[in-house]
């Protein structure tokens, strides 16, 4: 047998033990890195969802304000149109058009026949 010094055996044992332990440590580090990346990704997704949701709420708020303004304008326009319809249906206006444009006048006595 060969005689090895204690230092030689110890360094060989250390190298051998290191080569056995190193892959396991690398696996653990890789697993920790994967966990960290997954956790960071999940937090990023939650933050992006929160920001998107906030942007949607603000956008919808502007849309509601725009539609409220449009509604107020349409209500004002409806009131104006109702006033115009009332003016056009006015009996005084109809009578004036009948006299001026159509040449009609008030009925004379004897022209009116009352049927019971």
Automatic annotation (TrEMBL):
Transmembrane listed as a keyword: yes
Alphabetical keyword list: Cell cycle, Cell division, Cell membrane, Membrane, Transmembrane, Transmembrane helix
Bilayer topology: Single-pass type II membrane protein
Biological process, per Gene Ontology: cell division
Protein's UniProt keywords contain Lipoprotein: no
Principal cellular location given in the protein's record: membrane
GO CC terms in record: plasma membrane
Spans traversing the lipid bilayer: 33-52
NCBIfam families: ftsL_broad
Pfam families in the cross-refs: DivIC
Database matches in InterPro entries: Cell_div_FtsL (IPR011922), FtsL/DivIC (IPR007060)
Source organism of this protein record: Candidatus Methylomirabilis lanthanidiphila
Gene field: ftsL
The protein, known as: Cell division protein FtsL
Localization of this protein: Cell membrane
């Amino acid at each position: 047998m060969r005689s090895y010094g204690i230092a030689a055996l110890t360094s060989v044992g250390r190298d051998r033990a290191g080569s056995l332990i190193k892959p396991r440590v690398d696996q653990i580090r890789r697993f920790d890195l994967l966990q960290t990346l997954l956790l960071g990704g999940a937090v990023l997704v939650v933050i992006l969802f929160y920001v998107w949701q906030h942007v949607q709420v603000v956008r919808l708020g502007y849309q509601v304000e725009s539609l409220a303004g449009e509604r107020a304008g349409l209500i004002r326009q409806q009131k104006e149109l109702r006033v115009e319809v009332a003016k056009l249906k006015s009996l005084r206006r109809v009578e004036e058009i009948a006299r001026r444009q159509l040449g009609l006048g008030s009925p004379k006595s004897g022209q009116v026949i009352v049927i019971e």
